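Q: What does the predicted 3D structure of Iron ABC transporter permease look like?
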Amino acid sequence: MTERSASPATGIAVGSGIRRSFRRSRPIRAAAHVSIRQRSLWLIVLLATLALLVAASVAIGTRDVSWSDIWLALSGQVESIGQAAVTVRIPRTLLAVLAGAALAVAGTIMQGVTRNPLADPGILGVNMGASLAVVVGVVWFNIETAEAFIWVAIGGAACSAIFVYTIGSLGRGGPTPLKLALAGAATSIALSSLVIAFVLGRNDIAGGLRSWQIGGVGGATFERMEHVLPFLAVGFAISLLSARKLNALALGDDMAAGLGERVAFARTAAAFGAVLLCGATTAICGPIGFVGLVVPHLCRLLIGIDHRWLLPFSAITGACLLLLADILGRIIARPSELDVGIVTAFVGAPFFIWIVRRQRVRDL
């Protein structure tokens, strides 16, 4: 009796599995057929938008400055109030670009790793975990150096991510999108309450910590950013190198393993890159929410779901979004300003509701 005739049921099962795998892989193949011309066109549009927003960020604020002042300030002259304003806005603009790109890439990674359309550093409690770790470090251990802030924030982000994923994995069905979203929301609320409890007991530092907790890019300096750049560089590198692994994970764990991918290692490596980006960004900017939720969905509408394209596009779009939020915050509340954390919350909350209604909390 031949092997083929000995196990017809197995052959039917294998054939059905291949057909199911093919149907699940069709979206990735369809995304791969998005023309290079379309992607290149969108890339040009996004880069042009980013350049315009960078120029607007330098020119717009509580005091508008002329292009001559901008040019003179860029050449090193600080002889007027306008030129001094430009020298302050340049590091702020750079920080907004880096933070927006980092949070958007982290959100894309988290959605790919968990296959959850609601995944986001803020919604899954990662940002709040980093925030609590920093607050505990300041209140109990009196940390002051930038390096200590970054390491503590990354450790808190990692612990929170592991906790949420563990809680969301309990019970039948494993880590479903709904359970992860609920676990992340509950964890964020609990950690936020702990942050308030710790801060209330220290009136001497409460004002600074509360301002930092809102999330913003004001007060940025090149000296502060020097410490965070290596962590962001490593996080971006790991995330971009995980693109092919995320494409394999999108086919399902069984299919990814059948293609020779080490599923556990792929998830851990990609998640580590996202944690680095979240922790480092939170350490210097505070917890900024919804950027990692909004941007990946917008980019998928433009260029498909291939992570080799999605991650770079998310970085550029995230930088544009956070820059735009920072500019709007300066315009809306003149002569004062709104921190970007407030503006992104106004944008992200309705988008979150729309995603829930549209996706019905399905897997990616």
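A (community wiki): The structure tokens above were generated from the sequence. Residues 33-359 form a domain with the ABC transporter involved in vitamin B12 uptake, BtuC fold (CATH 1.10.3470.10). The longest helix spans residues 81-114.
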